[in-house]
């Protein structure tokens, strides 16, 4: 499956099987379906981890007007290798010449791999063109530049389809391509010496997922769900281990600290994402180490949350934690929660 414009955290299930958790940053992400999709049932759990208070252009999800959730999904039925056999024309500046994107005869242009022209220019400006025939049994096409370290403008039959770069290397061409109809692709590539255009270019082809049903769960709904699930709970001790894709609620009652200022709760474990509630209110979220898809988390201590003393009900407080197992490569476990007085 190809998740399009996903933000912030997306967990995908296909026919009840856990596919994976990804953090596209507002871009797109490809997740292979190892179990297939025989029943055609998809469930995507999307989670907001915050909004930026400044406009950061490095990722689509960090801009002030960034949207959360996803814009769609494509069931990938084929992949077209797009790295080879491009005709290249060397330009002198970044001014777009429309005739070079579709009309100009390219029979005498050298044929190279995408980004493979060894130019002494710094920066280098190049037009790459090739023909592409979309499959007849598809309605969605997304172009992906793996490992891209340059910037590019993409054209289809002379029409500009969009821009791609290192932080958003996917581009949806569905609105510009027609099943079974040949098209002329052109890429205006701007790159500097020492940085590659990318390891590989691939066109994902398939069918758009449709007929979605959406439901939301903010703090009150999550708290209500934990209360409803409490009757099925059973006594346990840490460590707790879950299979990848599993979720669970953890319940405990803890006293306030002696000075009444609360606790710093430090978590140890691997492959587990935690949403921590104190007296029905979210106090923080933690993503323990482990897994290739775990994002880099900075600012403060990423492995602890503060439990405010003023939120305790008299001398005790109910601690409820939503556990999500997100690592498919190793056991997902919560080993311990240690309380330190503040």
Task: Please tag this protein with its features.
342 residues; mainly beta; six-stranded antiparallel β-sheet
Describe this structure in words.
With 342 residues, the chain is mainly beta. Helix content is 3%, strand content 44%. The protein is built from one helix and 23 strands. The protein has a six-stranded antiparallel β-sheet, with no helix packed on it. A six-stranded antiparallel β-sheet has the order 8-7-9-14-11-12, with no helix packed on it. Strands 16-23-18-21 form a four-stranded antiparallel β-sheet, with no helix packed on it. Strand 2 (9-14) and strand 3 (17-22) form a beta hairpin. It is elongated. The protein starts with a strand and ends with a strand. 32% of the residues are buried. The mean pLDDT is 93.
Helical residue percent? under 10%
Quaternary organisation of the protein chains: single chain
C-alpha end-to-end distance: 46 Å
Are there runs of 5+ residues with pLDDT below 50, and where?
none
Task: Provide the fold topology.
Elements: E1 2-4, E2 9-14, E3 17-22, E4 29-30, E5 42-47, E6 72-81, E7 86-91, E8 111-112, E9 124-132, E10 140-146, E11 151-156, E12 159-164, E13 170-172, E14 183-191, E15 200-208, H1 219-229, E16 240-242, E17 247-255, E18 262-270, E19 272-278, E20 281-287, E21 304-308, E22 316-325, E23 332-341
Antiparallel strand pairs: 1-4, 1-6, 2-3, 2-5, 6-15, 7-8, 7-9, 9-14, 10-13, 10-15, 11-12, 11-14, 16-23, 17-22, 18-21, 18-23, 19-20, 19-22
């Amino acid at each position: 499956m190809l998740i399009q414009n996903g933000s912030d955290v997306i967990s995908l299930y296909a026919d009840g099987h856990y596919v994976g958790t990804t953090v596209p940053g507002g871009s797109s992400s490809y997740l292979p379906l190892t179990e297939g999709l025989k029943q055609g049932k998809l469930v995507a759990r999307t989670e907001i981890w915050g909004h930026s208070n400044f406009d950061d252009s490095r990722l689509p999800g960090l801009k002030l007007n960034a949207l959360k959730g996803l814009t769609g999904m494509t069931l990938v039925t084929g992949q077209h290798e797009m790295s080879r056999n491009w005709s290249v024309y060397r330009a002198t500046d970044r001014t777009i010449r429309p005739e070079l994107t579709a009309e100009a005869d390219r029979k005498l242009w050298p044929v190279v791999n995408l980004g493979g022209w060894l130019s002494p220019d710094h920066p280098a400006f190049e037009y790459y063109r090739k023909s592409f025939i979309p499959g007849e049994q598809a309605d969605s096409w997304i172009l992906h530049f793996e490992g891209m370290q340059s910037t590019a403008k993409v054209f289809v039959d002379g029409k500009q389809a969009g821009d791609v770069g290192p932080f958003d290397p996917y581009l949806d061409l569905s609105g510009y391509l027609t099943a079974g109809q040949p098209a002329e692709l052109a890429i205006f590539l701007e790159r500097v010496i020492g940085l590659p255009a990318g390891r590989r270019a691939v066109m994902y082809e398939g069918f758009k997922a449709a007929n979605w049903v959406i439901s939301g769960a903010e703090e009150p709904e999550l708290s209500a769900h934990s209360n409803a699930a409490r009757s099925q709970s059973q006594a346990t001790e840490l460590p707790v281990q879950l299979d990848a894709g599993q979720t669970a609620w953890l319940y405990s009652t803890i006293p306030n600290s002696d000075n009444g200022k609360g606790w710093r709760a430090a978590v140890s474990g691997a492959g587990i994402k935690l949403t921590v509630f104190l007296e029905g209110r979210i106090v923080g979220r933690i993503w323990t180490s482990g897994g290739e898809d775990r994002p880099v988390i900075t600012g403060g201590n990423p492995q602890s949350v503060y439990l405010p003393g003023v939120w305790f009900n008299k001398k005790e407080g109910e601690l409820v934690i939503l556990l999500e197992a997100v690592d498919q490569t190793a056991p997902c476990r919560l080993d311990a929660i240690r309380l330190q007085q503040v």
